[in-house]
Specification:
about 30% strand, alpha+beta, about 20% helix, 30 strands, seven-stranded mixed sheet, about 400 residues, single chain
């Protein structure tokens, strides 16, 4: 996972990357110059139109940055403005990105057609492709030396602040909810408050539509509004999930995914031995709505789960919400971080772990008294990951 270009992403997404050619910058400009795009090692990634909340947050942060850096030696910019991270001229460029917001402190990098070199700080606001910002651009920014990287998530209402360490690897220095002052680690006294977007009334969509901030027809088979029985007849020989009539197929997992799954499931089994709860690993169907097969609309296969209500357990699956679910990020970050986050919150999974093999961080979300997820703790792989609702349940991933 640490080999030059191959480590930019743990997955390939030809659905959004135009891979017919290995594009040069000049070719990309000629073909896609009238659109917003990014060029990463010959691949073109087109931008979807942003949502209202994306633009609201962008406006708020950019205003704060603009005011803060007025009369200072650094300047802030917002998209669309090209950043040539490798600093090369047009004919040799391999990397061209358009961060949502950035701060540049070396004035020699600023030219009329873009930034030639690396910004000091970059902000990306998650919207149309979580994978692109959380994995691909995370690795790009780390590789080229962006000192501080903010990932702002309008769905979980959380901002992650990553800072390069002495080994030029990102470390998560702080995580803020939108009702807190988000503080820069390298710019003293620079802080932003997004509390107006923390309020539950500021929801992107309501009811079933808020399952995702984006639609991904590339991975969802949407020719029909499938029932479970239809899905089984067509896709029964494959691993899939059914969410409100849409089918989401699983890609084959990577080795690290399986290593982590094995480690966590082993510790869960050992901890629960002799107790009234049981743990299961995928593939095992979970009918979250508790309905019988002919009426169910939500069938998922969590990587790992703990079930404490024995009446929910049947020979063909779990009927109802598990108490705890673990998802290990791999082939589709968006699916676990947005779609299934909302699904698990909606149906009452009390504790949800999101394990990220790229950032080597585990997020622990727990339902609060309003039945909304709150981030209770975040652990690096070097720490013991502790459950919030199961006392003394902990897992170490330091050997992964």
């Amino acid at each position: 996972m640490e080999n030059e270009k191959d480590n930019i992403s743990m997955l390939q997404e030809p659905r959004e990357a135009y891979k017919i050619n290995n594009y040069t910058y000049e070719e990309a400009e000629a073909i896609f110059g009238d659109k917003r795009y990014e060029l990463i090692y010959g691949e073109i990634f087109l931008f979807a139109s942003p949502k209202e909340i994306h633009q609201d947050i962008l406006g708020k942060i950019s205003r704060v940055f603009g005011n803060f850096f007025e009369q200072k030696k650094c300047k802030s910019y917002i998209a669309p403005f090209d950043v040539f991270l490798d600093g090369k001229e047009k004919e040799d460029r391999e990397i061209v990105v358009q961060p949502d917001i950035m701060i540049v402190c070396d004035m020699e990098k600023i030219k009329s057609d873009g930034i030639y070199g690396v910004p000091t700080l970059v902000v990306e606001i998650l919207s149309s492709n979580v994978t692109h910002d959380r994995i691909r651009k995370y690795k790009i920014y780390e590789k080229y030396g962006v000192k501080e990287y903010w990932i702002v998530d309008p769905v979980t209402r959380i901002t992650d602040i990553f800072v390069l360490n002495e080994k030029n690897k990102y470390e998560l220095k702080q995580q803020y909810s939108f009702d807190e002052n988000i503080k820069s680690y390298i710019f003293e006294n620079l802080q932003v408050n997004l509390k107006e977007y923390y309020n539950e009334d500021y929801e992107i969509k309501k009811e079933n539509k808020n399952i995702s901030m984006l639609q991904e027809p590339r991975e969802a088979y949407r020719i029909n509004n499938y029932t479970y029985e239809e899905a089984e007849a067509i896709f029964g020989d494959k691993r899939y999930e059914l969410i409100y009539g849409e089918i989401f197929l699983f890609a084959s997992p990577k080795e690290i995914h399986q290593d982590i799954l094995g480690e966590i499931s082993f510790e869960f089994k050992r901890f629960l031995k002799g107790k009234k709860c049981k743990s299961y690993v995928e593939p095992f169907d979970v009918f979250l709505d508790g309905e019988e097969k002919e009426n169910t609309s939500v069938v998922v296969q969590p990587d790992i789960m703990i079930v404490c209500d024995m009446e929910k357990i049947k020979s063909d699956g779990i009927y109802g919400a598990p108490t705890l679910v673990v998802e290990i990020l791999s082939s589709n970050v968006t699916h676990d971080r947005i779609r299934k986050y909302k699904i698990y919150e909606k149906y009452g999974v009390k504790e949800y772990w999101i394990v990220d093999p790229v950032t080597r961080i585990t997020d622990i979300f727990v339902l609060n008294e309003k039945n909304k997820y709150e981030l209770k703790q975040q652990y690096s792989f070097g720490e013991n990951i502790k459950s919030h609702i199961f006392e003394n349940l902990e897992v170490s991933l330091k050997d992964i």
